[in-house]
Amino acid sequence: MIGVDREETLRRLAIHDDAYVESILSRGFRDTSASGLDAKTQALVRLGALIGIVAAPPCYMCAVESAKAAGATEDEIVGILVAVLPSIGADHVVSAAPGLGLALGYDVAAALEEPAGRG
Predict the structure, then answer these.
(1) Cα torsion at 21, 23, 25, 30 (round to 10°)?
(2) How far apart are the first and last CA of the chain?
(3) Global pTM?
(4) Which pLDDT tens digits describe the chain residue by residue (119 residues)?
(5) Does residue 69 sit in the same domain as residue 96?
């Protein structure tokens, strides 16, 4: 974690140490050294955060691409919706599902509009 221990990281984030925050942000999404997580875990956590804030659909595109590039399967990506449901509630998950679906190449809204027995 950028050469500091977990307690120092917590302190720096708690006081909003601008230099520390900027040093993390400047590394971008693909650099996992600051978090200490492997690339796949970091990408899945990022998707969970986007679901939690019901991000705009384009935000999911980049995050899904990163997760896939790090070895995440589409089933694991969709599984995040189920994993975060108890923590963030159904409203957020229901709102996020169509955007995540689009990022995976599946138009949930169009599928719901298809007549019964098709698709």
Answers:
(1) -140
(2) 47
(3) 0.81
(4) 555 688 999 999 999 999 999 988 888 776 788 888 899 999 999 999 999 999 998 999 999 999 999 999 999 999 999 999 999 999 999 999 999 999 999 999 899 888 765 55
(5) yes
**Location of structure tokens 């140490």:** 17
Give residue 60's Cα distance to chain centre.
7
Helix, strand, coil % over all residues of the chain, rounded to 5: 65, 0, 35
16 and 58: one domain? no
Residue carrying the six token digits 């990408």:
43
CATH number of 47's domain:
1.20.1290
In angstroms, rounded to a whole number, what is the distance separating the alpha carbons of residues 18 and 115? 53
Of 81, 73, 68, the C-alpha closest to 108 is 81
